[in-house]
């Protein structure tokens, strides 16, 4: 059975992940560098990592297996998961794919350079109800696809 890894510190869909995972009886690893409300569900493992850069990413990368699912908005982490033959899903429901991850990494790097140069300002768009709905559909679809492959 696939396991779900959540890059949890800024993840707006933790509750949704837990509901869907419970319905499928899947293990979930909630990985963060700060304490979160503990779950009583024995299928949920809460992992607290040091407050160092990329500690959550490194923990997920060290533990995720082919066929598992990672929930993250972090493009480099998504690339690492795809490299390990796991699925990676953004919290807005958009899947990271083998075909698109190179372009996503390049665009991320370009935007970072533009922000550092002061050429681009602003933040990510706000998280919407449509994003939450899209995420729930995408997570269900990803789980079903992974279950069919097993």
What does this structure look like?
The protein has 150 residues and is α/β, with parallel strands linked by helices. The protein has a single domain, classed as Rossmann fold (3-Layer(aba) Sandwich). The chain has five helices and six strands. Strand 5 and strand 6 form a beta hairpin. The longest helix is centred in the last third of the chain and has 21 residues, at 129-149. It starts with a strand and ends with a helix. 29% of the residues are buried. The mean pLDDT is 89.
Query: Mean of the pLDDT scores?
Result: 89
Placed side by side, the strands forming the largest sheet appear as: 3-2-1-4-5-6
**What is the count of distinct domains?**
1
CATH architecture: 3-Layer(aba) Sandwich
Q: What is the helix content?
A: 40-55%
- CATH topology name, in short, is Rossmann fold
What's the total count of β strands?
A: 6
Regions with little confidence, pLDDT below 50 for 5+ residues: none
- CATH C-level: Alpha Beta
Strand content: 5-15%
How far from one another are the termini? 8 Å
* Rg (C-alpha, Å): 15 Å
Q: Per the principal axes of the C-alpha atoms, what is the gross shape?
A: globular
Helix-strand topology string? EHEEHEHEEHH
- Largest sheet descriptor: 6 strands, mixed
The chain-level structural class is alpha/beta
Q: What is the count of helical runs?
A: 5
């Amino acid at each position: 059975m696939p396991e779900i890894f959540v890059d949890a510190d800024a993840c707006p869909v933790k509750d949704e992940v837990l509901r869907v995972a419970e319905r499928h009886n899947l293990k979930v690893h909630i990985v963060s560098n700060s304490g979160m409300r503990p779950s009583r569900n024995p299928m949920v493992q809460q992992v607290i990592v040091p407050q160092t850069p990329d500690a959550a990413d490194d923990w997920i990368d060290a533990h995720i297996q082919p066929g598992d699912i990672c929930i993250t908005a972090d493009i480099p982490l998504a690339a690492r998961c795809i490299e390990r033959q796991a699925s990676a899903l953004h919290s807005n429901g958009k899947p990271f794919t083998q075909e698109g991850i190179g372009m996503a990494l390049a665009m991320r790097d370009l935007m970072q350079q533009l922000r550092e140069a002061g050429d681009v300002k602003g933040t990510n768009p706000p998280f919407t109800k449509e994003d939450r709905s899209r995420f729930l559909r995408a997570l269900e679809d990803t789980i079903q696809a992974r279950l069919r492959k097993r």
